[in-house]
Amino acid sequence: MNDSETDSQSINALIVFRENGETDNLFVPILCDAIKMAGIDVRCSQKEFWESDTTYDIIHFQWPEEVVGWTCEDPDVIRRLKERIAFFRSRGTHFIYTRHNIRPHYANDIISRAYDIIESESDIVVHMGHYSQTEFMQKYPDSRNVIIPHHIYQYTYKEDISIERARQYLNLPQEAFIVTAFGKFRNWEERRMVLGAFRDWDEEQKLLIAPRLYPFSRRNNYGRNVLKRWTSRIGYYILIPLFNRMFRLQAGANDEPIDECDLPYYMAASDVIFIQRKNALNFVNIPLAFLFHKIVVGPNTGNMGELLNSTGNPTFNPDHKTDIIRALKKAWQLSTLGKGEMNYAYALENMSIDKVGKQYAKVYRDLNSSL
């Protein structure tokens, strides 16, 4: 064993993330295992950050919402966050922050302030693209920054499903050109962007799959608001089937995520993965699509646009329908040229769990030895 491996094993690190494993975003659990495989003693826990007196060499923040709570409305949490950071720093702890978002998706003042504290207090900020680093350094010109790509989800899902078997399993037409938009649609703007372009795209065999498109629900009772409750249920039982027929799509309610066991079948059944986020910095569906040998079409924004452009996947201006249609047509052309296989090869070379885990481990070691 060489000296660097010996040194790395002595590092005690904490990733501030829920320890019970109950999450539909596997980024952190997989990353934690990858860093362990690179020789770092690391664990995930939110409770440890707030309650433990353990001395950690490295504390690694992910989403600030995971630190203070996704719907936190307690103003005192800001004081306590500053105190906990000061407590650990007094014991020699160094802080790393992986930047997933520019700002919180569902912001309130408390969570926004938590972002400011974690951004400014971290010794190193990890970005998943040059776009994020450049934007961040305009606000924090003296910050230390590194770029590590989003890892792919190897060894997590069944990856050897044929497109024919997947479509048979999901009862989808074998001859269709299937475009899939995963993830919850957050607003009407995202819905208009996708549906408007797909409706006007003159491809006869097209089929759009959007498992979490509609804002209707069969379960949400809206408390005592009878009008909202019944409007939502009417939408669920009447408008969803109607719109699906009108727009030639297969879509469901946005409060009904697809089962993790079914996700690889949806991926395998698709010809193209469509990214509906207009202003996001990163999106998990790109590395996931690459893992499943798929072409990706997405907006030319944030780290997403940077990654898609650098790998030759079609991008578009999200505010121009004709540009979205152009990108869809380009994706159809690329599907006949083996572009999905090229994406997979790129992901294995640059975004593998092993490579990303070692890159994070090096950041941990360098930070622990230099400060």
Number of strands: 12
- SSE string: HEHEHEHHEHEHEHEHEHEHEHEHEHHH
In CATH terms, the superfamily of the largest domain is: Glycogen Phosphorylase B
Could you say what the CATH topology of the largest domain is called?
A: Rossmann fold
Unreliable sequence segments:
1-9
Q: Write down the domain tally.
A: 2
Rg, please?
Answer: 22 Å
CATH C-level name of the largest domain: Alpha Beta
Q: What count of helical segments does DSSP give? A: 16
CATH architecture descriptor name of the largest domain: 3-Layer(aba) Sandwich
Assembly type of the chains comes to single chain
Strand content: 5-15%
Distance between the termini: 25 Å
> Major sheet: order of its strands?
2-1-3-4-5-6
Organism: Bacteroides vicugnae
Protein name: Glycosyltransferase family 1 protein
Task: Explain how this protein is built.
The chain has two domains: 3-151 and 352-370, Rossmann fold; 163-350, Glycogen Phosphorylase B (Rossmann fold). It is 48% helix and 14% strand. The protein contains 16 helices and twelve strands. Residues 1-9 have low confidence and may be disordered.
Core attributes:
single chain; 371 residues; alpha/beta; Rossmann fold; 2 domains; six-stranded parallel β-sheet; 12 strands; disordered N terminus
Write the topology of this structure.
Layout: H1 3-9, E1 12-16, H2 27-37, E2 41-44, H3 47-51, E3 58-61, H4 64-68, H5 76-90, E4 94-98, H6 109-121, E5 124-127, H7 130-139, E6 145-147, H8 163-170, E7 177-180, H9 188-200, E8 206-214, H10 226-247, E9 249-253, H11 263-269, E10 272-274, H12 285-291, E11 295-299, H13 302-310, E12 315-316, H14 321-335, H15 339-350, H16 353-370
Parallel strand pairs: 1-2, 1-3, 3-4, 4-5, 5-6, 7-8, 7-10, 8-9, 10-11, 11-12
Helix pairs in contact: 2-16, 5-6, 8-11, 9-14, 12-15
Protein name: Glycosyltransferase family 1 protein
